[in-house]
What we know:
The protein has three helices and 28 strands. By secondary structure, the chain is mostly beta strands. The chain folds into three domains: 43-128, Immunoglobulin-like, CATH 2.60.40.3780; 133-233, Immunoglobulin-like (Sandwich); 236-389, L,D-transpeptidase catalytic domain-like (Beta Barrel), CATH 2.40.440.10. Strands 22-21-20-28-23 form a five-stranded mixed β-sheet, with no helix packed on it. A four-stranded antiparallel β-sheet has the order 1-3-6-5, with no helix packed on it. A four-stranded mixed β-sheet has the order 2-8-7-4, with no helix packed on it. Strand 5 (85-87) and strand 6 (93-96) form a beta hairpin. The relative contact order is 0.12. Mean pLDDT is 91; it is low at 1-34.
Amino acid sequence: MALITGSLLLAVTACGGGGDGGGKKEEKDGAGKAKPNTPSVAVVEISPKDGAKDVATSGALEVTAEKGKLSEVKVQDSKGNEIPGEIAKDGLTWKPESHLAASTKYKVHATAKDAEGRTSAKDTTFTTLTPKNTFVGHFTPENGDKVGVGMPVSLNFTRGITNPDAVEDAIEVTAEPAVEIRHKWYGNDRLDFRPEEYWKPGTKVTVKLNLDGVEGRPDVYGSQNKSITFTIGRSQVSTVDAKSKKMTVERDGKVIKTIPITTGAPATPSWNGQMVITEKHKVTRMNGATVGFTDADGEGEYDIKDVPHAMRLSTSGTFIHGNYWASASTFGSANVSHGCVGIRDVRGGYDGKTPAAWFYDQSMIGDVVTIKNSKDDTIAWHNGLNVWNLPWEKWEK
């Protein structure tokens, strides 16, 4: 029994010893083939530095890679909104598509890969500057308005803009159905947008103002980030003929009424041109002194405290309005005004059946009133919202 037991132990020992020897050989061979788990040699750099404050809203943010190429860049504000940007074709740089907002904390996460496909990453945060001086753009029309086919988009800035390109890049005006829209500056504080022809009825127009953080002039930054939408109603274009002293009202291309009118007298003729209704007043006061019509004593040549059914056509004081002080025979036979278009009415405008009341009720902000055959010049495009008087080729793409 002792001999048998020893044989068994020898066999077991021999078997185990053979296994140990084979395992050492395999481990040695495997160690010779495996690659070391070394880190990526790619280096990600982010400007501005981590924790930076008072960072400029334009030109300061950039992500670069050395000894590798960028594979992902993600920039978010404190609300989780992502900032769009693009990695360059060579994979070495990333920049944001537009400016950043002011007084905002941003988080940056970027990764890069080296030639072996190994990844390195970097995360930083920074905060943009808080402006001491800001500007906004007051816009026409208002959000949700329904307007006539002649209404342009007009922005009036509270500070003169000396960096117009940056402001233009931060404003987007689109239409549905789509149509080409161009812009034009008047001075350095007004910017208007329009299509080549009047808007088509039913068009939906959207204005996006991404002005927050835009440096419109040295050390003066925009503070708006909002979107407004308005729609175009039916088409109404009325033509005033100063020679025949009649106005033809067209609705969606069809004449719906012809109205006797009076325009500017020979000494004070009306402007010619396409004019847009910008205000409506059931009753308003008109004083000649406010628009330069004064007598020898400096008093207004006229001061009518209750002009009915008045609608503004120009900044300089041109209206189309009800007239109760001229005789009924004047309308359609004589031009007697100081440049306005007058329509027969009653004092107080209480009679809804007068021609002036009818036209007032049928009109909306943005409708077009064209005056022709007057002895005066064509009205300037910036006198009111009368943008249609500037040739299309003079508007910027």
